[in-house]
Design a protein that fits this description.
single chain; about 120 residues; alpha/beta; Rossmann fold; 5 helices; globular
Length: about 120
C-alpha cells in the first residue's frame, strides 16, 4: 500500500499558498495549508497528525518565528523546508534545524522539486 507523504504548508500569502498546495496535491501529496504556524499547530494537535515535512515561508512574515519554534518542538524529527528572503536574516537555531533553505527568487517548480527530494512519493 502506498502512503501519501503528509506535507504541512505554512504560507501567509493566500495566492502562493493555493499554488503550492494545488501543485503538490496534483502530484499526489496530502497537504494541509495554513496561514500561520499557530494555525498548523492547532490543526495537527486537534487531529493527532504527524507531518512528514513542514514547508514554511518566512519571506514576508518573520513575526511568526516564536510560533514556528513551538511547532517544531512538537515535531523534532520532521523535515523542514524554509522559504526565505535573502534580505531577512534567519536565526541560527532555524538555519541549523532546516533541512533545506530556499531563498527568493524561486518558482513553484523549485519548491516542488525540493519537496520531492525531502519527502519522495514512494511505497512505504
Amino acid at each position: 500500500m502506498t502512503a501519501l507523504p503528509f506535507i504541512v504548508l505554512i504560507e501567509p500569502d493566500w495566492p502562493a499558498r493555493s499554488y503550492f498546495r494545488a501543485e503538490l496535491e496534483e502530484l499526489g501529496y496530502a497537504v494541509s495549508a495554513h496561514e500561520r504556524a499557530a494555525d498548523a499547530a492547532h490543526f495537527l494537535a486537534g487531529w493527532g497528525l504527524r507531518p512528514d515535512l513542514i514547508v514554511v515561508d518566512l519571506a514576508s512574515d518573520g513575526e511568526q518565528l516564536a510560533e514556528l519554534q513551538r511547532l517544531l518542538e512538537d515535531f523534532p524529527d520532521t523535515r523542514l523546508l524554509v522559504l526565505a528572503s535573502p534580505l531577512r536574516a534567519l536565526p541560527e537555531w532555524l538555519r541549523q534545524r532546516a533541512n533545506r533553505i530556499l531563498s527568493r527568487p524561486f518558482a513553484v517548480s523549485d519548491v516542488v522539486r525540493v519537496v520531492s527530494e525531502l519527502a519522495p512519493l514512494i511505497d512505504r
